[in-house]
Input
Amino acid sequence: MAPRVECETAEEECMKEHVSDRRPSESSQKASGLRFGVMASGKQLRAWQKECIHQLLALDGVELSLLIKDARSSTWRDKISSVRPSQFLFQACNRIAFNHNAGRVVHSEELFSDADVMEVESIRKEGYSEYFPEDKIEKIENYNLDFIIRFAFGIIRGEILEVAEYGIWSFHHDDERKYRGGPPCFWEVYYGDEQTGFVLQRLTDRLDGGIILKRGSVPTAHYSYAENMDRAYKESASLPADVCREILSSDNPSLGEKSDSEAPIYSYPKNYQFILFLLKLIWRRARSIC
Output
């Protein structure tokens, strides 16, 4: 759980946290340039996410207008219930041992100084799919956003996917042509791939089968899962700004192509796979020393 963000003043900051019932003013309506929103759990982001927003705001004519805050709060019971005994080893180590620099929580309040905040509690259906309430969709539409960056919520489906002109943009830190699902950047290390891919995609109703806006890759860190994530997440932070440059430089941008990947949908490694994974890391480190 991210640390609580305290109000700067009881009156000024708390007003920003409760604007979900307020329509944007005329001055906030779209003019020139690009207006975007961010889906996040609050005003504190991961380091790579902050860098992503920073690069967007460094572009002329790009404006952050709305923070769409995930109103759900996960309890310790939720975390325990999500742990599967067959995948316990990875899930336990992932919380403790696989922290990476790009994934650390950093103060990011200054990025949202001019943005409204709208709290949304999504509706879970069909297992893990999340849908936005109709009244929230209407209020988000009033902001006339060009795109929304997704850093929170789960598998989003429904009308919210079309609420912005260029849709909702989401990162997948793997090459979806080989690895759909997750965990991010893991299976490349497990199988010894030379490159770890990542994509920025416009979400559709198909899991890891959206419209690919940008691709990238980094050399796989075969000796460290944390290092592999750090490399991929840092490098991927520039992708949204790259897409915005293409939009701003064209009168009729044609963005991306739909992924037709039929790659397997991976999940957390089972306990025996994780033990084998650790043995592989030990062997690779030993070979690099000898």
In short: The radius of gyration is 20 Å.
